[in-house]
Write a structure and sequence with these properties.
This protein has helices at 2-30, 34-55, 57-68, 78-96, 106-120, 128-150, 156-184, 207-223, 225-228, 232-252, 255-276, 284-300, 302-313, 319-337, 364-394, 405-419, 430-444; strands at residues 402-404, 449-451, 457-458. Strands 1-2-3 form a three-stranded antiparallel β-sheet. Helix 7 packs across helix 10. The chain has two domains: 12-55; 56-458, no CATH class. It is an all-alpha fold and 460 residues long.
């Protein structure tokens, strides 16, 4: 009872001080005393933020991703600063408690290699600001996310919440934005309605980027449905999002996500057959569901489907395809002229390509090759291969009632990597955070198993 009363007293004191500071803020605003108002507002916001960061770091990362997908134009998203501040708070907490700040493993060492390569190429940098900005999505953000998840800062329940709650909510938030712009009619641009696919611009991504994100979430949530399917509200939300995604993907008529999806399935089938010694699971119900979904969509959006087919047929003369070929060629040329350490993060400009300055070659491997040279390219390839190597080792365990958690995410990793070979995805501000969260979760939950019947995660 004494402990309970002390805890209650602390909460009352905290709430009392918080309300007092809030009232003082109102008074300062009334008298237009801006300098003390800014300082006091920062204090009011930062105290709860620090407390939440220590107790629920998974919630802070989730909120930062929501902000990353907020439809506001920006050069650097605020979600970077939220995660950096979260990492600082957690590191200081461990220093005060005299605990190790984080554990060093092979992945941390590989990420640190990118920093050393950035220093080695510093003499070639044309802009310090762009160098720092470019470093954030390439290795600073991924490293911090990985450390936070794999150094004990995020609890087991916090890790599971990403699949039971956070990812479905992010997906629903994106779908809500799409429904809004379709309802407003702002997605219809160009001379004819057939140019609908060029009209999606949500601030965090245009048409093809949007279709890549939708394809990713459809695949991710379907693969992890054993976890979220237990919650009725989440299940209904996800199924509704699936329906909207099917329509939007047809309207956008993007080729890259289609090719990426089919390529990921093919590679995963080959990997599973030779590493797991298993054939791909096939059910008649899958075919029936596919027919029930695709046939009505085809007749409703027949014009869009036929136009998409034409885009594949005339791909060699398509401006979008030719621009990408040029970007790949120019990026490869820059890499060959700076093979060892690259030119530095976000330092490469394409020569006379657009009226604005473009720096990303729309290919995740070229992005790292141009920025960090052959060493950086080898490092990112190693990071991408690790999940498949780890699961291949786990494939020796064969139980009928459970499946390794990591095997659920392998097709999603393949989809992400292949799609990033043709579009700005992993190296982007918004989607990049989602990918690296998934990467960190994989490594945290690699030893977990999921019960086929109950969907309960069994931690090792």
């Amino acid at each position: 009872m004494e402990n309970i009363s002390k805890t209650t007293l602390k909460r009352k004191w905290f709430l009392g001080i918080f309300y007092l500071l809030s009232c003082l803020n109102v008074c300062l605003f009334s008298y237009q005393l801006w300098t003390p108002l800014i300082l006091l507002t920062t204090l009011v916001v930062i105290i709860p933020y620090i407390i939440i960061s220590i107790k629920y770091p998974d919630l802070i990362i989730f909120l930062s991703v929501i902000l990353a997908f907020t439809p506001v134009e920006r050069s650097v998203s605020i979600h970077f600063y939220m995660i950096i501040f979260l990492a600082i708070v957690l590191f200081i907490k461990n220093i005060i408690l005299r605990k190790p700040i984080f554990k060093i493993d092979f992945i941390v060492i590989v990420f640190s290699l990118f920093f050393l390569l950035s220093v080695a190429s510093f003499a070639k940098w044309v802009s310090l600001y762009r160098g720092i900005r470019g470093s954030l999505p390439l290795y600073i953000l991924p490293l911090l996310i990985y450390i936070i998840f794999n150094s004990g800062y995020v609890s087991r329940k916090g890790a599971e919440r990403y699949f039971t709650l956070y990812f479905p909510l992010i997906y629903t938030y994106i779908i809500g934005q799409l429904i809004f712009i379709i309802y407003q009619g702002t997605a219809v641009t160009g001379k004819s309605y057939m140019e609908f696919h060029t009209g999606f611009d949500l601030g965090w991504g245009k048409s093809v980027f949007v279709s890549a994100v939708l394809t990713f979430f459809v695949f991710l949530l379907y693969r992890t449905r054993k976890l979220w399917n237990k919650k009725t509200t989440i299940r209904n939300l996800v199924y509704f999002d699936y329906c909207v995604s099917a329509v939007v993907l047809i309207l956008i008529m993007a080729r890259a996500p289609i090719v990426s999806f089919l390529g990921a399935l093919l590679l995963y089938y080959i990997y599973r057959k030779y590493s797991f010694q298993q054939e791909m699971e096939f059910k008649l119900s899958y075919v029936i569901y596919a027919i029930l979904i695709t046939v009505p969509l085809y007749f409703v959006f027949k014009a869009f489907v036929l136009y998409l087919i034409e885009r594949f047929i005339h791909m060699k003369t398509d401006a979008s395809f030719l621009v990408r070929i040029y970007m790949y060629s120019d990026g490869l040329n820059t890499f060959l002229h700076n093979p060892l350490t690259g030119v530095g993060p976000d330092q490469h400009y394409f020569k006379q390509l657009f009226s604005y300055k473009e720096t990303d070659p729309n290919n995740v491997f070229l992005s790292y090759a141009v920025s960090f040279g052959v060493i950086g390219l080898s490092a990112i390839c190693t990071l991408f291969l690790l999940p498949f190597i780890k699961i291949a080792r786990r494939s020796k365990i064969n139980k009928k009632d459970v499946i390794p958690f990591g095997s659920l995410l392998l097709p999603v990793f393949l989809l992400s990597i292949i799609n990033s070979s043709v579009e700005i995805v992993i190296t982007s501000f918004a989607y990049g955070a989602i990918f690296w969260i998934l990467y960190a979760l994989f490594n945290k939950m690699i030893d977990c198993e999921i019960d086929n019947n109950t969907g309960i995660v069994k931690w090792k």
